[in-house]
Amino acid sequence: MRKVGIMGGTFNPPHIGHLVMANEVLHTLDLEEVRFMPNSVPPHKKLDGHVSDEARLRMTELAIKGNDFFRLETAEINRAGVSYTIDTMRELLMKEPDTSFYFIIGADMIEYLPNWQEIDELAQIINFVGVKRPGYSRETPYRITLIETPEIHLSSTVLRERAANGDSLLYLLPDDVIRYIEENGLYEAE
User: Which Gene3D superfamilies does UniProt cross-reference here (predicted)?
Assistant: First the structure.
């Protein structure tokens, strides 16, 4: 049975916090790979930043470039519409029945799990991996593996604001992602 991590998100933009979290889970749980899966329309939040799916896919691809254990998963972007994890995981399990999937979520999502679409079935077909962060409850009725990772207090929202203000993104995003943002005028102030 293959062990594969899935890290879903808007990745608007993908930053070093995402990469560190994925890398820590990869090694702690001895996974074969971690797939970064940009969602099309997240059910739990508004997609800010006026950036196309294609741009988010490209930035994610650039962010994970050079790491042989990181892959891009396009299932949710390809399907379009609201990205419910249950639909995606059913699809992936149909294609890869020999794979045990580990869905990586941040501490903020742990307390939100009861609101996920068809959560009871989802909790039966995948393994949840929660990344601990101070200030968030880890209480949940669902089976979840908790992982300690180095604390990196970054958010894509703050990074979009920095880009719009012309502030430096150096060391906060991979260099190729910064270059892509600059070359394509993403997140510029309106």
Answer: HUPs
For residue 130, the domain's CATH number is: 3.40.50.620
Q: Is residue 82 part of a domain?
A: yes
Gap between the Cα atoms of 35 and 69, Å rounded: 8
Strands 99-106 and 33-38: unpaired
189 located within any domain: no
Query: What is the pTM for the complete model shown?
Result: 0.93
| Domain encompassing residue 101 | 2-184
28-65 pLDDT, tens digit per residue, is 999 999 999 999 877 766 666 679 999 999 999 999 99
